[in-house]
Amino acid sequence: MKIDGVPYRSVWVDPEDGWSVRILDQTRLPWTVEILRLVDEKQVAHAIKSMQVRGAPLIGAVAAYGLALALRRDDSDAALEAVAAMLGRTRPTAINLRWALDRMLRALRPVAPGNRAAAAYAAAADIAEDDVETCRRIGQHGLPLLQAIAARKPGKPINVLTHCNTGWIATVDYGTALSVIYQAHDAGLPVHVWVDETRPRNQGSALTAWELGKHGVPHTVIADNAGGHLMQHGEVDIVLVGTDRVTRQGDVANKIGTYLKALAAHDNGVPFWVALPHSTLDMSVRDGVREIPIEERDAREVLETTGQTWDGRVETVRTAAPGSAGLNPAFDVTPARLVTGLITERGRCDASEAGLLGLYPEFAAAA
Ligand SMILES: CSC[C@@H](O)[C@@H](O)C(=O)COP(=O)(O)O
């Protein structure tokens, strides 16, 4: 996608600069577009943990490049396993991280030391290219949902509510739920997006709003608590979100607050769709509420907020009462019964084992 007319991806390699890895520092958006240069696996681990890169598919792709950077220095069996394990511990909820590292290990274990670094760059590039094409297709398969709404209310805006950031900067390109929105907008549909602020880290008001603005998609930032009210008053035609892990029975882990949106959508008869690439499926678990590990982040993210002062300085200020404690679960799980359906690169399906196996029959045998 483009920033001010210049095409970007959210991660790339610079062969002219020692095969270093480049990312956009998402902790600096929307105030500054700053490109970071990562040269070893420690910097990659820091970028993932500190959320300089974030979004389930993107952290998988960046971790894959982190392994490639590490193997340039030491490509022994021991280093391969140790670095993959270290990168895999950086964030616990998004399964894409483990998916990408497992795919790298499968590709690299049979390669003799001496050839592994080049093979790792090639395998990481495959993961990145796979993600780009997958996300493009997700958008195509979601588009008919918005076309159907447009046909029901000709000439009126299609009001989509979204949570967190599921755009091109959360993936390698295009995004997941936002890929649907971009393709609808590009096809000329009158899409308008209600952007949940997404406290505590404001991925909605900082990142989604920035992305949509750069692409010219009409949008309005709302407080996280406003969605239910808007749904009660007929102001939301559809909820479109992404996910960090989908279980075999169709339960969906996503950014904290997604579950409350699904409850409100269910109560108001608003369709609630979840967009995901194959790399987000975890067929080894069933009950998402019990089985998906939920990342708990520093309570300061809840007690403080970061923003730009009127004279242009970016500052973090405490918003909670001095001395109060905070709790910061970063994700929650929406049970499958609240999900209208899933949008994947292979098409749409019910949020159920039968639905998923209809699109992914190769997972029938997985435990
Ligand atoms: C690609 S979109 C799916 C999810 O990764 C997204 O909705 C999300 O929850 C991201 O969380 P984050 O904590 O910002 O990495």
UniProtKB/TrEMBL annotation:
InterPro entries: IF-2B-related, IF-M1Pi, IF_2B-like_C, Initiation_fac_2B_a/b/d, M1Pi_N, NagB/RpiA_transferase-like. It comes from the Bacteria. It catalyses: 5-(methylsulfanyl)-alpha-D-ribose 1-phosphate = 5-(methylsulfanyl)-D-ribulose 1-phosphate; 5-deoxy-alpha-D-ribose 1-phosphate = 5-deoxy-D-ribulose 1-phosphate. GO terms for molecular function: S-methyl-5-thioribose-1-phosphate isomerase activity. Pathway: Amino-acid biosynthesis; L-methionine biosynthesis via salvage pathway; L-methionine from S-methyl-5-thio-alpha-D-ribose 1-phosphate: step 1/6. Keywords: Amino-acid biosynthesis, Isomerase, Methionine biosynthesis. The record marks 164 as: Transition state stabilizer. The active site is at residue 244. Its EC number is 5.3.1.23. It holds the Pfam family IF-2B. GO terms for biological process: L-methionine salvage from methylthioadenosine. Substrate binds at residues 54-56, 91, 203, 254-255. Belongs to the EIF-2B alpha/beta/delta subunits family. MtnA subfamily. Catalyzes the interconversion of methylthioribose-1-phosphate (MTR-1-P) into methylthioribulose-1-phosphate (MTRu-1-P). Also catalyzes the interconversion of 5-deoxyribose 1-phosphate and 5-deoxyribulose 1-phosphate. Part of a bifunctional DHAP-shunt salvage pathway for SAM by-products. NCBIfam families: eIF-2B_rel, PRK05720.1, salvage_mtnA. This is Methylthioribose-1-phosphate isomerase. The lineage of its organism: Bacteria, Pseudomonadati, Pseudomonadota, Alphaproteobacteria, Acetobacterales.
